[in-house]
Structure formats: structure tokens, C-alpha cells
Amino acid sequence: MQELRALLLVGAGGCLGSVGRYLLGGWVHRLLPFAAFPAGTLAVNVLGCLLIGLLGGLMEHRQLLGSDLRLFLLIGVLGGFTTFSSFAYETLALGRDAEPGRALVNVGAQVVLGLVACWLGYALVRP
User: Fold this and answer.
1) DSSP SS3 for 35
2) pTM to 2 decimals?
3) For the chain, how far is it from start to end, CA to CA, in angstroms?
4) How many domains does the chain contain in total?
5) What is the C-alpha separation between 28 and 17, in angstroms, rounded?
6) Domain that holds residue 6
7) Smallest Cα–Cα separation from 80: which of 29, 19, 27?
8) Predicted confidence (pLDDT) at residue 35 exceeds the cutoff of 80
9) Torsion of CA 114, 118, 123, 127, to 10 degrees
């Protein structure tokens, strides 16, 4: 029953986060229609990183978020909004925990492997 509760919290939050990503990205795109840069995605990622930093800080330093709210907001809403925020927060945690080498490996692996996987997926369906 606890697992079902967690799944529902994450799913509901993910739905809200995905809708928020769509709305914010579209709004930025309409605001900057001739931008030769994915400004909507950048805005979503930066806002998501700010929010996960704020919520993570509240959770760690002020114990203001319980486990259900953490599941809903951090994993659900922000996970649906942007997984880049999770990547940024986890990398920050590695650096903060005096593991800068692992933080750099995480950055390199996420960026390089992500780009390689994207290229590979694209190449597999290209005629």
C-alpha cells in the first residue's frame, strides 16, 4: 500500500511538472520567437535547478518537507518539469560531500553518454 501511495504521489506531481514544462517552454518561445537557441528549455532547466536547490535546502537544513511532500515535489513535480534539476542537485551533493572527482565524472558521463545515446537513437532510425 505504501508503494502505491508513493507511485500516486510521484505520478500526480509528474503530471503537474510536465504541464508546467510545456507551458513555461511555450511561453518563453512565444516571448522570443526568433531566438536561434532553445531558450524555453534553458528557462525550464534553470528554474528547475533553482527550485530543487530551494526545496533541497529546506529539506536538509530546516526539515520542512516530509517524505510524501518530497516524493511529490522533488521527484514528481520537478522530475516531470526537468530531470536536469535532479542531475544538478545530485552533482552539487557530490561536490558538497567532498567528492569533486565523482561530481566531475557525473557531469562528464551524463553529458557525453546522453549525447552519444541521443545520436545513436537518431542514427538507428535514419534511412
Assistant:
1) coil
2) 0.78
3) 47
4) 1
5) 16
6) 2-125
7) 19
8) no
9) 180
